[in-house]
Design goal:
It comes from Anisodus tanguticus. InterPro entries: NUDIX_hydrolase-like_dom_sf. This is Nudix hydrolase domain-containing protein. By secondary structure, this protein is α+β, with helices and mostly antiparallel strands. The chain contains eight helices and ten strands. The strands form two sheets. Strands 1, 2, 5, 6, 7 and 8 form a six-stranded mixed sheet that branches. It has a four-stranded antiparallel sheet with strand order 4-3-10-9. Strand 3 and strand 4 form a beta hairpin. The longest helix has 17 residues. The protein is globular and about 50 Å long.
């Protein structure tokens, strides 16, 4: 009598949903238990209550303002214009140099060629600028403010800001302060004032912050301003409102004379003293 073959027992493979269900059941059991083993496990196994906390939310500017996502080389203003047209609202871009108080593509190209401005490759691009802000302190704790500017095209642009100048690549704060004072106020000071102590940077007055807003000079172009601020005393300035002249804003630029002449430049700065408390920082 032959033995009856025994059927082979095959272990049914565990399906992926079963694994999830089992893991979830164990988690519920451990979560509802108060024994020491469960407490120990909780220290090593955690589940976020809000998974969105762990998502990297994109921001308007690159975390490192001096290193945008991409750095482009534009051989001339026309190549920059062609690049911008593909990435910006047409109505905003068309207003550059036309709307009173704005600058044009030549201005932005000169900024890029000198390393004063960086553009991130996005739509629209993000312009990053490091700015040296000098709060000039005068008598009775008053602060010097540029009330308005007269531009090369005859437009008067309101400012109501302290002395400010775009920083050069690799420039120190101290060097930027003296250059800003020379370029903005030099016509009423005269001479080499760095060596004779006319400009005194106040100790412990340095601060830094980042502001993100749409540029007033280039409508529709978001901007990230890295503001380096110091307070300084500048001897020899008039006590009343006064005006300074800027003979050649782009004189040191490597751009051609045709590009410089086509850019909107500042011809005169108008200054006044205001109460520090009313103006704020």
């Amino acid at each position: 009598m032959s033995s009856r073959p025994q059927p082979h027992l095959h272990k049914k493979p565990t399906s992926f949903p079963d694994v999830i269900f089992t893991a979830f059941s164990l988690f519920i059991i451990f979560s509802s238990s108060n024994n020491p083993t469960t407490s120990l496990l909780r220290k090593f196994v955690s589940f976020p209550l809000n998974p969105r906390r762990f998502l990297r939310i994109p921001t308007m500017s690159n975390p490192n303002p001096r290193n945008p996502i991409h750095h482009h080389h534009f051989p001339n203003p026309q190549s920059l214009s062609d690049w911008l047209r593909l990435r910006m609202p047409s109505d905003s871009f068309a207003s550059w140099g036309v709307k009173p108080g704005t600058k044009n593509v030549n201005n932005l190209w000169l900024e890029l060629s000198e390393g004063e401005t960086l553009l991130a490759d996005s739509s629209p691009p993000v312009r990053t600028v490091e700015v040296m802000v000098v709060r000039v302190i005068g008598k009775d704790n008053k602060v010097l403010v540029e009330s308005h500017q007269e531009l090369s095209n005859g437009v008067v642009r309101n400012r109501c800001r302290p002395l400010a100048e775009k920083m050069k690549p690799g420039e120190t704060v101290e060097d930027a302060v003296f250059r800003a004072v020379n370029e903005e106020l030099g016509s009423v000071l005269g001479g080499e004032f760095r060596e004779n102590g006319i400009v005194k940077i106040l100790p412990n007055s340095y601060s830094k912050k980042v502001e993100e807003r749409v540029s007033a000079s280039y409508p529709g172009l978001p901007a990230c301003y890295v503001l380096h601020t110091v307070e300084a005393v500048v001897d020899g300035l008039p006590d009343e409102e006064f005006c300074t002249e800027e003979t050649d804003e782009y004189g040191d630029s490597s751009g051609s004379n045709m590009v410089k002449d086509g850019a909107v430049s500042c011809k005169r700065h108008y200054w006044k003293w205001v109460d520090a408390d009313s103006y704020g920082r």
